[in-house]
Write a structure and sequence with these properties.
Layout lengths: L6 H4 L6 H8 L26 H18 L2 H42 L8 H18 L2 H4 L8 H43 L3
């Protein structure tokens, strides 16, 4: 039975070795991203994925804006951020407390339930342990997420500066990798085509 790559040969169509290899190239190296596209679509000159470049540009714009901010603007941003964090913590703590009440309600009923047979004791123990595990993981916000710390202007500046430097370095490196990867993909395709006289 022919594959998608060999079907033209199977059906008796005129297929050169070059045409066949170009189709097969979709399953390898530079053209691997084309493996699900129609086999008669030609292999293009690849362009770098713009994701990292776009994010690098955005980060640089935000960084430039950051450098121009006054202390009053920073204080305002800190206040907004703090208020959002405080509201989020309050909401999460309330949800956590409500969840704990629901778990404890079921746990209370489980603790007084008498299993109908000895064979059901393990079911009761399992159900109790599941509630206990869930309480430990699902009800943690009420303990530690009540009061976020409001940074000083200098702390905020220092943290933001470090974040920008990290992000710009990351996106720059990733963009450079993407450009090099694309260059290598195109070279791979060109080397293949040159070896086939195309």
């Amino acid at each position: 039975m022919p594959t998608g790559y060999t079907s033209d040969i199977y059906e008796g169509k005129e297929v050169s070795m070059s045409d066949y290899l170009i189709k097969c190239a979709r399953a390898f190296g530079a053209a691997i991203t084309m493996r699900d596209e129609p086999l008669d679509k030609s292999i293009p000159v690849f362009e770098p994925n713009p994701y990292y470049k776009e994010n690098l540009d955005k980060e640089r714009i935000k960084y430039d804006h950051f450098l121009k901010m006054t202390d009053d603007e920073i204080r305002h941003e800190i206040d907004v951020m703090y208020d959002e964090q405080l509201e989020s913590c309050k909401r999460l703590a309330k949800e956590s407390q409500d969840r704990l009440k629901r778990y404890e309600s079921i746990l209370k009923e489980l603790n007084v339930w008498d299993p109908p047979t000895v064979d059901h004791i393990e079911l009761k123990n399992f159900a109790i342990s599941q509630i206990g595990s869930s309480i430990k993981t699902d009800c943690i916000y009420s303990d530690y997420c009540r009061y976020p710390q409001k940074p000083t202007v200098e702390e905020w500046k220092s943290r933001k500066l470090k974040d920008f430097e990290t992000n710009i370095e990351y996106y720059s490196a990733k963009w450079n990798e993407e450009v090099l990867h694309t260059k290598n993909r195109n070279k791979w395709v060109n080397d293949l085509k040159m070896s086939l006289g195309l």
